[in-house]
Amino acid sequence: MLELKNIRKAFGDCVANHDVSLIVNKGTIHAVVGENGAGKSTAMKVVYGFYNPDQGEILLDGKPVTIKNPHDAIALGIGMVHQHFMLVDTMTVAENIILGAETGTAANLDLDKANRDIKALSDELKLDIDPQALIEDLSVGQQQRVELLKALYRNADLLILDEPTAVLSPQEVTEFFSILRRMKEQGKTIVIITHKLKEILRITRHHLIHFLIPKQKSS
Q1: Rounded to 5 degrees, what angle do the CA atoms 55, 152, 2 make?
Q2: E strands of 41-200, at which residues?
Q3: Which uninterrupted H or E stretch holds 44?
Q4: For residues 90 and 70, what is the distance between their CA atoms, to the nearest angstrom?
Q5: In the chain, which stretches have pLDDT less than 70?
Q6: What does the pLDDT look like over 76-122, one tens digit per residue?
Q7: Dihedral angle of Cα 52, 58, 64, 69, to the nearest 10 degrees
Q8: Residue ranges in 49-168 assigned as alpha helix (H)
Q9: Of 158, 152, 153, nearest to 189 (Cα)?
């Protein structure tokens, strides 16, 4: 279970999050919904360690944790797929996934084993991704699946997805939601950041939606 208690984050005079609290139960799909500027991404980037909160507390399974950077988050089993993918076009799927995840030099990495492990992960979730394919040859929807594989390869149990349907066609959205349901069935916890309420009701209708409302400026 993930819990935020009274999180505040400001950038100079701009307060992005003020007294944000929420609970995300294990094995659920939880949507964080709000208009642009409501602070949705900021709150979740605090969870992932991109930003450090000015005040407040983060708890995992009821225990306070300190997440200073994404490496801390990954070590705690938290992964994040950003709206703008972080992939190297000229590298293969497997090379992108193990980039930064494995210790040692490129010369001693076991790429064959990585290809097998990634293929097994892809098959398990029916992602249909070839580990040896070049990123530049993949569609946007396929690249998003590579980002999911990257997080799962690093043993993420809780995945934060930032506006995951923004770049997908209607058919890709349907396929993507099927993937998320399969991940949930395997015990993964998923947090979706979005402003598309009608669309997100399709995937979260049996789960939780948390609304963030931008702080009104005083006149």
Answers
A1: 30
A2: 55-60, 63-65, 78-81, 158-162, 189-194
A3: helix 40-48
A4: 24
A5: 100, 102-109, 204-219
A6: 999 999 989 999 999 999 999 998 675 444 445 688 999 999 999 99
A7: -30
A8: 70-75, 93-98, 111-124, 140-153
A9: 158
Phi-psi region of 128 (alpha: psi -120 to 50; beta: other; left: phi over 0): left
CA 73, 79, 103, 106: dihedral to nearest 10 degrees? -140
Backbone angles phi, psi at 198, to 5 degrees: -60, -40
Helix (H, G, I), strand (E, B) or coil at 98: helix
* pTM assigned to the model: 0.88
Q: Which CATH number among 3.30.70.1520, 3.40.50.300, 3.40.630.30, 3.40.50.1820 corresponds to the domain 2-211?
A: 3.40.50.300
Taking CA 156 as the corner, what is the angle to CA 8 and CA 76, rounded to the nearest 5 degrees? 55
* Inter-residue contact 132 to 94 (CB < 8 Å): yes
Quick one: DSSP state of residue 151? H
